[in-house]
Specification:
Layout (H helix, E strand, L loop, with lengths): L1 H11 L9 E4 L6 E4 L7 E7 L5 E7 L7 E5 L6 H15 L2 E5 L13 H17 L8 E6 L3 H8 L7 E5 L5 H5 L13 H4 L7 E7 L1 E2 L4 E2 L8 H10 L7 E4 L10 H45 L3 H17 L4 H14 L5 H19 L31
Parallel strand pairs: 5-6, 5-7, 7-8, 8-9, 9-12
Antiparallel strand pairs: 1-2, 3-4, 4-6, 10-11
Helix pairs in contact: 3-4, 10-11
Length: 395
Amino acid sequence: MGGVSSTIASKLAFFPPEPSYQVDLDEQTQKLKLLGVSQSEKGEVSILQTKRGHYIFSVFVRNKGATMTLLYSHGNAADIGQMFQFFIELSDRLRVNVMGYDYAGYGRSNGEPSEQNTYADIEAVYKCLKEIYEVKEEDIILYGQSIGSGPTLELATKLPQIRGVILQSAILSGLRVMYRIKYSLWLDIYKNIDKIPYVSCPVLVIHIYDSCDGVGLQGTEDDIVDISHGKKLWELSKMKYEPLWVKGGNHCDLQVFPQFFTHLKKFIISVERQSDYSKNVELEESIIDLDYTLDITNEIKCRPSIEEIEKSSRISTEQKEIIPIRPSTDRKLKPRISFDKREKPRKSMDYFGKSRSSTDQSERGRTSIDRFGDMMRSVAMCNIDCLKQTLAEED
């Protein structure tokens, strides 16, 4: 069944154009370069081998001030030669790096286009970003246009730490472009409707519409993919970002509207701040952990040992044994001596009386001083021309 599904996808979904570019080796730099496109010097060309044995071409547009990288999957009727100027514009206006690539069978990439091949293609490009360009997963934003939303969401479900996903004129699934169906069928392709709930990063949906009745969006000027696809994908997203519904235009010209780049820039800034916040939280947590460790260490150092406690206890006991009688008690014993001699003359008895008085004064003058030790304690599908029927929103 998988083979039949792949065949249907190839016949109905993919329309690779005649290659719009050539690839040649620059004799001076010994690097590949695009021929037949303007400003080709801004692109770094690579040939990548996929796990399905195909060789595909990619182009990397670098921005020196960028912290984020867009991995762009184009529509079904374009190649990277046609998209190259748009990649440069994205890089300049959004201040990001952009990595674009051609699916198997597109541009100068060999093989035949199919759903499974596109999944292998985007995995090879992602691997290139990590290993060759040393881009971290959390600094990548996946961008899928139209049918490119298929490989984009497939990869997004496998990368929980990516920074964000952008879906432009995206599809719910291949068959849903032509037919109004409630459930995914075995022969369907790019079942984005089933994958979007498993994407764990902010999702920006961009689509075009014709009118708005104040309750929901109605109608569309996208004659390829109805806006119901974009609405449903946004509703099913776990981390929804404010969508962009562009009034007017068509399936492939959203970028000519001024609000297009404005909204994209807001999204990029938002996820960049989220990245900075996450890094700050990690730093604060590490500092807290360090402080806690130091506190515990200091507490252990300041806490008296068992030997010290026992030694202190012995000294206290010995002091009590050595000094059994306080000075004031000695004065109390003097009158007893006089009492033993009470048979002496009256004068002695008078003296005894005075001695009693002296004893009372001694008891009132006694003081006691106690001393205690101190204790210290201390987290696109661009122009799916073969899909000629566009139906209304799903039920």
